[in-house]
Task: structure prediction
Amino acid sequence: MIYVRSGEERGHANHGWLDTHHTFSFADYHDPDFMGFRSLRVINEDTVAPQRGFGMHPHRDMEIITYVLSGAVEHRDSMGTHAVIKAGEVQRMTAGTGVLHSEKNSFDQPLHLLQIWLFPKEQGLKPGYEQKAFDEKERQGRFRVVASPDGRDGSLTVHQDVVLHGTLLGQGEQAEYALAPGRHAWVQVARGSGTLNGVKVKAGDGVAVSAEERLVLAAEEPIEALLFDLA
Result:
């Protein structure tokens, strides 16, 4: 079963400095039919104006992943972390028992990113932070693991039974993925357009997948996408 959550149907708010689209219910946007998918709770596509951003604010009991599409974000948190995450880099923060953090575009170019929240496998985890760069060549033409429960293949470690992959496909390219029995997937198209198992998809679309053994993402124009393999 494949269900496309059209990008045009997402929640949307434009605050001037922040243009944001919500795949699932978030903040003032509420849709009881879209409260998340499996352990996936939030996918926000944010464009942040230069020299603006999110000030210090709290989180707890959530795995937060930031996937930067263009620009860079400056991160600070109550664990003492100060880092800059650039395009091609992925950040994982375990909020656990509680953490304060800020995410700001401290630079002169717009920042475009996906902010992702996952419910953790257990509550009360020790807060933690990790970030890694994934070269375009590693993601070109295939699904490359960027986050997993065991940090496999140099990926980030996430405290949930989910394996997150990134891919970049040129026009006419395709990438295949085998989905194990009983597993589910969510595919988020960040850029471009094409088909997933023959179903049309485009930038902003999310796709819920269940009871499929094989996924084939084919690019009609260059695509950047994320694939979540979920319990």
Notes: The chain has a mean pLDDT of 97. The longest strand covers residues 214-230. The chain is about 0% helix and 60% strand.
